[in-house]
Amino acid sequence: MSTDENETAEGSSANPRTESVDVVVVGAGTSGCYAAATIANAGYDVAVVERKSAEEAGHIACGDALKGADAFPDAIPKSQIEPAFTNTEVDHGRFEIPQEDTVLDIPVPGELAVIDRWEYGRLIIEGADEAGAEFHYDTVVQDVTQDDDGVVTGIRAKHDGDVVEYDADVVIDGAGALSLLQDKVDFSDATFDTNVSYSQFCSAYREVVEVPEPVEWSDALVFKPADVAAGYVWYFPRTETEINAGLGFQMTEEPMKLVDDLKKDLRARPEFEGAEVVDKLGAALPTRRPYDSATAPGYMAVGDAAAHVNPTTGGGIAGAAYAGAYAGEQAIVALEDDDVSEETLWRYNQRVMDHFGGRYASLDVYNILSTAVDVDDLMGLIASLPGENLAEALYSGTTSFSPALLLQTAVSSYGHWGQIWNFFKVKRLADELMAHYDRYPTRPSALAGWQDERDRIMDEIYEVTGADPKY
Ligand SMILES: Cc1cc2nc3c(=O)[nH]c(=O)nc-3n(C[C@H](O)[C@H](O)[C@H](O)COP(=O)(O)OP(=O)(O)OC[C@H]3O[C@@H](n4cnc5c(N)ncnc54)[C@H](O)[C@@H]3O)c2cc1C
């Protein structure tokens, strides 16, 4: 890496200090660390710019549930993050439905761990650091630099009151939900998805709580509906006596009083008597479909910055890790071809859509449905559906019903047939949407035509669900 220090007015905004690297990554979260490790492993110069201090970095608001822990990208070896897995015994979701006086135990497919999130955050930073990435802490990115052809050429940040510029061939935006960089880039010559609004996000808050006695459900992720349909409360056991308790709601709803509502729920549960709160954090997370395109010339957005989150569960760690790795690999292609155009970066979008983007977009359909139904009706419906299929639908985006299962469902769901019929119509459209994502374009110039057909399917979804258009 070369560093040009200005001799006369070092760090002043008139003559900022300039760092030159191959790739600059904004944010030392999961997406940023996996991108940086991938690029550093290939021998390129990569700087990770993080607004938090070295001590605070990695401390992120999270429910601490890590789904798919068995198959993470190997840019940072699994053995590196395993020490943060504090509970690997969880094998099912426990859905508490007070409206129906029911508890549903639903298996969670694949490997799942509840983790010490801050420790995990430190370990992935350590992993990227060991791969050769350089971390610049206490450095707040405030702007981007872009040339006359619209190519993003770097970022401008503040460190200790001084302006620092980073010149880079590729900028990777891993700055999390509602990333500031996206307000700064001029996307007029790019396909980058700018159809983004607050109502497509969820506001969430969590506390880490220590309880005096082991909880009985230490092998389960506990979910409970909040008072609004598009919201839920969770209790995830980090250990038998350390619980991550939180809640969130889609920002289309009347705002919940997150801190008070959580306190109320905790007070009503005998297992939390005498509990001590050891950490509190809240944040926004994208509970929407992934960005149609997360590229612009010289620029890629990864993780929460491009909505790579399962919109029904809010799980975003795995998506962030894979998006980071894919963007890192595409940045390497761009560096090797000396070409940072969207045509070259496009393969990154394709890999995201192919791996999980299409699935998350189809899961978003159920989120849209949940904003349009009454919470009691929804809970009645969920309580009447077979658990295995619910689990499948929750994670894979679709499920199938055999004739025998249909009959069983029809009997158990008596009283909800109207909603069930509607649910099946919605499911058919969600499947159609997923099939359309399988045809995600192979080049940027074909995106607009693909979006037209996708929007036609979305219009049908709004019509069937009665929901207000989300996009
Ligand atoms: C309350 C809550 C609970 C959640 N629970 C779960 C869960 O149980 N399981 C799960 O898988 N996912 C969960 N998620 C989602 C998950 O936390 C995110 O999807 C994941 O952290 C995204 O990683 P990321 O790297 O994209 O962004 P982040 O982890 O948000 O990292 C972004 C980084 O960028 C830095 N940054 C931001 N702006 C700037 C700037 N201007 N300059 C410099 N640095 C900047 C931030 O300080 C941060 O370190 C939850 C989210 C919330 C809010």
Describe the protein's architecture and organization:
With 471 residues, this protein is α+β, with helices and mostly antiparallel strands. The chain folds into three domains: 17-195 and 288-355, FAD/NAD(P)-binding domain; 199-286, D-Amino Acid Oxidase, Chain A, domain 2, CATH 3.30.9; 363-465, no CATH class. It is 35% helix and 25% strand. Strands 1, 2, 3, 9, 10, 11, 12, 18 and 19 form a nine-stranded mixed β-sheet that branches. Helix 1 (30-41) packs parallel to helix 6 (317-337), helix 6 (317-337) runs antiparallel to helix 7 and helix 11 packs antiparallel against helix 12 (447-465). The longest helix has 30 residues, at 342-371. The protein is globular and about 65 Å long. It binds flavin-adenine dinucleotide (FAD). The site of flavin-adenine dinucleotide (FAD) has 38 residues, from helix 1, strand 4, strand 10, strand 13 and strand 17.
* Average residue pLDDT: 89
Shape: globular
Stated plainly, the CATH topology of the largest domain is called FAD/NAD(P)-binding domain
Helix and strand composition category: alpha+beta
Organism: Haloferax larsenii
GO molecular function: FAD binding; oxidoreductase activity, acting on the CH-CH group of donors, NAD or NADP as acceptor
Protein name: Geranylgeranyl reductase family
Pfam families: FAD_binding_3
